[in-house]
Amino acid sequence: MLFDFSLQRLSADKQNEWCGREMRREGKFLSKLFLHLFYIHLLLISILVIFLTVRGVLSAAHTHHFQPKNWYILVFSSTSCSGIIGFSWQAFATFNPSRTLKATFWLSPLLTCAFGILLVSIGTPGSLAASVIALVFSVLQSLYACWVNPRFEHSSRILTVSTAYHPLKVKTSVVLSIIASTLYSSFLMAGIGGATATGTMVDTLFIILILGSLTWTTQIIKNMIQVTVSHIKYMQFTCGIEVDFKAVVKTAAKYSMGNICIGSILVPVCDVIRGTARAVSLISGDVDEFMFSCANCCSGVASRIVAYGNRWGFVHVGVYNKGIVQASMDTWEMFRRVGMEKLINSDLTSSFCFLSGVAAGSICALLGGTWALVIHRNYATQVCIYAFLTGYFTNRVAMAWVQASIMAYYVAYAENPQSQQFDTTITTYMQELQRSQV
């Protein structure tokens, strides 16, 4: 009987080993597939943008519907402004993290409201629809800032501690990433201008595809920074050593790029689902009505989804070369094991970076839209929207190293809470959260 049991156990171990190999093979296949899809998409989008740009310039010679000079002056100046604002914002976060965090939570609603008022003044149906969204969102931001105000002190402390160490080469990579995002955004805006010249249904589809490319590509640039910087900061937090930046970048580009491409789609989708579920649960409260009957269900689904795709997993993607799903599962399990789940849920890092992007996008939209009203009013609505998007995404790229530093700090602490590399910041706040539950 003992012999039979040993055989069964050995067989089960072999099955588990085989399943693990199959999962790794499948992960490598998906990683390579998404990497190739990304490069193919870049090629196709480049061809499309060049075609639309040339067609727009040629069509402008025959009709007066599209004025390339005015269009390109407006969008290129707005895109350049997004790079300047993104660089300035991350610089403020470096030199004075606490004030930058607090200022972001209070400035973002005001800037979004100003953006909404500008859209109202433009007066087109599209601008009026967008203004409603902007004004409602500004109110929601204000309410959120009031709600999370008690967390500012802890978040400022975490932000200060985690970003205290920033290698010079990281700064260089951030500047290069901002420049790359700005240039790529300008290139895509040229294609959108060409599509605007004719304005058919097919051109609308082309604009959607170009904006989708802008979203995915900037997400990949942002997550590439997060993978490399979190790797460097993780080693500093856990071992107190500084690894070679060039080696980390080469390793990430060679082994992790495919998983970064996957995570750049998976993680934002999971964040949107999780954020929606948390909003539904917050709105429902203790009201027992039919319209809120799915709140608990949504919360349960969100808690499961976050384990399979979260930004904390990018730390293990870079350090251990894991797939994004496996890395997300492992990091979230660590947080649960050491009792950090509630701490992570109350973290304001993602909100800070998100609102920084919203504020930067609103500034770009205000500058571009105001100038459009003076130069060419017909372009004001489009310039406002495109300037907001480029400002938002460029700022998210600029703030990626800040978010990566905090990610590495939390993950390194979860792996070894007793390490002498950490002070009592996390421990004290976890005790405060426990006392608040009593």
From TrEMBL:
Keyword field: Membrane, Transmembrane, Transmembrane helix
Pfam families, A to Z: Choline_transpo
Membrane topology category: Multi-pass membrane protein
Molecular-function GO terms, alphabetical: transmembrane transporter activity
GO cellular component: plasma membrane
Domain of life, source organism: Eukaryota
Transmembrane segments: 33-58, 70-92, 104-122, 128-147, 174-193, 205-225, 352-373, 379-398
Subcellular location as annotated: Cell membrane; Membrane
InterPro entries registered for this protein in UniProt: Choline_transptr-like
Record function comment: Choline transporter.
Family, as annotated: Belongs to the CTL (choline transporter-like) family.
Protein name: Choline transporter-like protein
Organism, scientific name: Perilla frutescens var. hirtella
